């Protein structure tokens, strides 16, 4: 009997950990729990500052107050106001109490740390993550507090900073993936290291295609047909030319979810700020797919401005196709309104995986894959032969 999508997904996540020592993960993800469930986090977790949080403040810090700040679907967030040596210092605290919290906050800390190390003025400084002393299953993420203006950063600054992050954020080991498993909402991401972008992206997409079926139910025959085309033709056709024929890309640090709600303006410096990252090392253009969404304020002008600072990958004629391919996946959930509501339609696999029972997400997936099928009817092999290039096999991954 063939395994169900749920069984396959659990197997893949477990296989990820057992085969690759470069992914630090000691937790088995229990995929039998729905990951779109709103987490009820007790308010008392941000009524006082836990001793394990206090331990990361400088010696002599006087705590003045802690109060709710901002909102989150899966956690509670607060500002901690302190005084040190007579100067006011504020911290941002995010807390949750559920079995996903450890993985969630560890991933957020490692992601934000990676961004901060290459662009320290582009995100709040991450301080630590950990478990509460007073609540055994209460976890927290702590960073510096930045007073932000909830507006889209300036066209002339924001794309340039994203390009700077990509240029400076080269993978330390030269491989695609990430060293810890981070989260998309409450759904663990695929981050196992690979030597090839095509190999990594294919497995990355298969992971979320399986999750999408768990979230939305069995695929129709048409969706199954389009998925076969996507993996057998579209990904090789658009990814393999990036790394063959004398062309080269390098794994670079990507935020992975640069929709409007994860960017703002520093109220003091007026510089662009990004947060809520789920980083990995990938193709830099992957981060631009979300800007292709017509319902987002960052659109084509931001993509064009970005490429003034970071040139399009070769072959350039495939750029629009790559944007459409990344658009299929990269947008997490277009806009989270207050509570459970979703303000706008989303257009991708990850949203369809994360938000169960939303048929419009699956419809959008089908529309995009249909368009990719129409635009790219030839295989990679046919494309390379027509250009007089050697036909290269797909590069595989290897465990280091």
UniProtKB/TrEMBL annotation:
SUPFAM superfamilies: Protein kinase-like (PK-like)
Transmembrane region(s): none
Superkingdom per UniProt: Eukaryota
InterPro entries: Fructo-/Ketosamine-3-kinase (IPR016477), Kinase-like_dom_sf (IPR011009)
Pfam families found in the cross-reference section: Fructosamin_kin
EC number in record: 2.7.1.172
Gene3D superfamilies: 3.90.1200.10
Catalytic activity: N(6)-D-ribulosyl-L-lysyl-[protein] + ATP = N(6)-(3-O-phospho-D-ribulosyl)-L-lysyl-[protein] + ADP + H(+)
Single GO MF descriptor: protein-ribulosamine 3-kinase activity
Protein name: protein-ribulosamine 3-kinase
Protein's organism: Aureobasidium pullulans
């Amino acid at each position: 009997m063939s395994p169900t999508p749920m069984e396959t997904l659990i197997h893949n996540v477990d296989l990820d950990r057992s085969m690759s020592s470069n992914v630090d993960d000691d937790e088995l993800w229990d995929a039998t729990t729905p990951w779109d469930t709103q987490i009820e986090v007790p308010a008392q977790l941000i009524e006082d500052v836990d001793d394990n949080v206090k331990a990361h403040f400088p010696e002599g810090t006087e705590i003045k107050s802690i109060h709710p700040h901002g909102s989150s679907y899966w956690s509670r967030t607060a500002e901690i106001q302190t005084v040190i040596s007579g100067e006011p210092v504020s911290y941002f605290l995010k807390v949750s109490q559920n079995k996903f919290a450890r993985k969630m906050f560890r991933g957020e800390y490692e992601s934000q740390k990676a961004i901060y190390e290459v662009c320290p003025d582009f995100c709040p400084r991450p301080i630590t993550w950990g478990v509460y002393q007073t609540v055994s299953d209460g976890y927290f993420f702590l960073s510096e507090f930045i007073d932000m203006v909830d507006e889209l950063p300036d066209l002339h600054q924001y794309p340039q900073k994203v390009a700077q992050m990509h240029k400076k954020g080269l993978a330390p080991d030269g491989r695609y993936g990430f060293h810890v498993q981070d989260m998309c909402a409450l759904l663990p991401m695929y981050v196992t290291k690979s030597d090839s972008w095509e190999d990594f992206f294919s497995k990355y997409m298969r992971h979320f295609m399986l999750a999408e079926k768990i979230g939305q139910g069995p695929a129709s025959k048409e969706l199954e047909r389009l998925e076969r085309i996507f993996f057998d033709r579209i990904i090789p056709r658009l990814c393999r030319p990036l790394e063959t024929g004398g062309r080269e890309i390098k794994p670079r640090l990507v935020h992975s979810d640069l929709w409007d709600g994860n960017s703002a303006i520093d109220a003091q410096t007026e510089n662009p700020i990004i947060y809520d990252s789920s980083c990995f090392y990938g193709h830099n253009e992957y981060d631009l797919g979300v800007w292709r969404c017509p319902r987002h304020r960052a659109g084509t002008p931001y993509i064009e401005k970005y490429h003034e600072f970071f040139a399009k990958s070769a072959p350039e004629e495939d750029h629009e196709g790559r944007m459409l391919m990344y658009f299929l996946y990269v947008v997490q959930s277009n806009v989270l309104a207050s509570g459970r509501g979703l303000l706008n339609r989303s257009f991708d696999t990850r949203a369809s995986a994360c938000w169960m029972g939303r048929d419009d997400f699956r419809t959008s997936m089908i529309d995009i894959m249909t368009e990719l099928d129409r635009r790219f009817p030839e295989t990679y092999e046919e494309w390379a032969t027509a250009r007089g290039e050697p036909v290269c096999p797909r590069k595989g991954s290897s465990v280091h």
